Amino acid sequence: MLQQPVLSAKQAYGEQFDVKGLNFFRRLLLALQNKEFVVYFQPKVSIQDMKIAGAEALVRWNYDGQVLPPVKFIPFCERTGLVIDIDFYVLEETCRKMREWMDAGMQLVRISVNFSKYHFNEEGVAERIYNVIQHYGIPPEYIEVEFTETAYLDKEELLESTVDKLRSYGIKSSIDDFGSGYSSLNLLQNMDFEVVKLDKSLLGKGVENDKAKKVISSIIHMAKELDMEVLAEGVETAEELKLLRGLKCDIVQGFFFDKPLPVAEFEKRLRAGGYKEDGSVKEPERIKMELKDVEEIGNSSKNEANSSLNRYLNYEELYDRKRNNGMFIAGLVMLLVAITVLLITFFVIKSGKFGKKEANVSSVVEKTYTQAEVDELVSGRVALAEEETRTLVEREYLSQIREVAGEYSGMTNYLRSLYPDNLVFTDGSRYNFVAINKDLKQSDVLEELFVRDEATGYLYYTDASGNKTSYLGIDVSSHQGNIDWNSVKAAGIDFAVLRCGIRGYGTGKIVEDTQFKNNMLGASNADLPLAVYFYTQAITTEEAVEEAQFVIDLLKPFTVKGPVVLDVESASSDERIKDLTAGQRTDIILAFCDAIKQAGYTPMIYADSRFYTLRMELERLEEYDKWYANYNNLGRDPSASIWSYNSPLLFPYKYRMWQYSNTGRVNGIDGNVDLNVLFDKWW
Questions:
Q1: C-alpha–C-alpha distance, residues 674 and 262, integer Å
Q2: Among residues 68, 312, 384, 584, which is most buried (max CB within 10 A)?
Q3: Are residues 462 and 341 both part of a single domain?
Q4: What SS3 state is found at 329?
Q5: How many domains does the chain have?
């Protein structure tokens, strides 16, 4: 049923690719063809009886053994139209798995599948969804289609028509992230959704804030008046569960119970049936296997043995037999019975001597099987599977190494993924492994909270609810020439860092940046908050103090509230500072920063990861802010290849600002300019 993705011209050429983007696009197409995407399931729990009421199907990419979350590829897929193929891939894989559960006699629960707003560029979505469900013979009431609130804003008529058609087919539809946008009430009024999912941002304040609690209560009451089922996502604490139960919410979902689970783990939850009040999984009941349940196998003919095998593999029939005797048969025990019968039948049929096998049958079955014993039974099979795949895994690792070995950045990032407790750097022809110092202040920057503005391409940092919390800045020097600062301000730039001067790396002479005064006046008139930086080549603490005094004198006519930054980096193989030890360089940095601090300014240090960790003694510089530079790629750029992907988390220590690109483009500036993310403002 699953077809190879067929892209329309609009889908395939809606994105202007660079080379990396084109390669990533081709890699995603290959992943679809090879079925590298896997479906995880996050349980949904009935709030009244704590039983599993359903699950949400969520996609992951199994990239050569590494499970990648959606944030690594879905934004790119949305930009190119591939998200349409991935959404139907998830639906089809979900239906395929549900068909297996039905055939095994397991009780189904309703599974929801997410569908992007990008499906509403053309009609026929509902019909295609229904055809997939029908192909696998899944009762439509066990499939739910989730749409986000933003889908309503773009294609209102098509979304409304799709929801109505799904309902006519018996397929439930839900509105996800309800309350996160501005169209919520219109959605309830105009759309015939059957389920509303409360956005987790609503719940976060409801436990302690009476006003927020009333908002949640009102939404639940209103939804129930409209005969809608209410689900709260993002439940993480017992207090939140208690609140939602008191407000008569129907279903909850969140890490308090489980994160998204691989299929095997989710099946265990289905067999257990539900959760305890503390969020832990209920233990399935166990039984002692009786001899009479398997004696008939040893006493029957080959045909009878095969017939018995089929009967024992029918979970529902065996469940009914035990239930009539007042016993509950857990799904896990049913699987054990099937495995046992398979083994017995194999040896019986192979030998052709049924009578001689009866004693062995009795000795195998007459016992109570605990979870530990079940684990032991399968451990041998697991070991065999591991042995069979070890060679393949090694071959794949070698293939990856060969792929990235041609460039330092690719190999370096690959090595970082293998050694997460080390910083890995290239220095000439060598790789350096530096253990991360856990005693230093650690960075609290989370990679998944960076968001790229689709319109401008600029990078921002957000809070857990998606609200922007960072500030966008540039740093400039005479290299940028004359700048139209009003245009820069209008382009959305929040602040600027201006180079005020340098010490020559050959002559050692201190020189003022030729554009400094022009930039100070222009940026000030444009009402941009300002900071300054000085490029050092000091080789003694006396020279460091001299550089600091030069900056202080230069700033006297101006008002600078931002930090005064010491730029510590290499410029040439024959530079003055090339022979300094880490201790000597740290002494120089401290001398500059101390002098700047005494003058009433805020010092800051600028360097890249290698300079910070290999050429400074960071433990002596804890009190001063850090400006971290790393721009091999542009942050969370989804078109970047897997192993050259540039993460801000590559620098593990606390920093205030991240220079993430040296190829930014800003209106008012000719050519490239550095772009920066500032995490907390100074103005």
A1: 42
A2: 312
A3: no
A4: coil
A5: 3
